[in-house]
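Page 42, continued from yesterday. The earlier attempt failed because a stray header line got pasted into the input along with the sequence. Redoing it now with the clean sequence only.
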Amino acid sequence: MAFNDDSFIREVNEELRSDQMKGAWQRFGRYLIVLAVLIVLGTVGYKVFQYWDNNQSSGTGDQFIAAMKLADENKSDEALTALEKLEKEGHGDYPILARLRAASVLAQKGDATGAIAAFDVIGKDAKAPAPIRDAAKMRAAWLLIENGTYEQVSAQVEEMAVPTNAFRHSAREALGLAAYKAGNMAQARQWYQAIADDAQSPRNVANRAQMMLDNITASGKAPAAQG
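This time it went through. Structure tokens are written below.
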């Protein structure tokens, strides 16, 4: 499904301003998540590609590419079988990359519970490289927005929502959406304001954050702070 981010934001803005916050989330929450996840996946994919590109000397590289192709073709079961073999028999860093891709395939299949559990294990694996752990935590958090609680999302990514972390924009947006969904407008405002105040926030992320800040203020549930 294709999205026009600017026109969609205007439509959501009008609905949210109707002051039917719960109904608006039910109608648009999933699409807000999809729009944001497009950026998350791009960030995660770039970081993982960088890591893979720097470690592609292993003889199992062709097998990994073949497994990713199966996943891209929606041959999920075949991809999982190939990735499981790589996890067990692969050399170098391919086993951990195979685990990360397998978790994504589970999400692709609609097994959110299995995917979250798999990402969570990777995110807590001290032997995994830091970029892979962060990518796994980020993916788990975004799945948890729809399938968990604010506390669960926070446990995955709040430590990444700091100025020095490359994932901070996505982490803050995930936390803001999770807080908004939970009805905690003050907490949601805090995270969206952090995005708005960060000059390096990507334009689409900043636009969505400002939209949410305006609507949280309009709802009267968490007025803007007075200067």
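Notes: Residues 1-12+31-53+150-221 form one domain.
Reminder to self: strip header lines before submitting.
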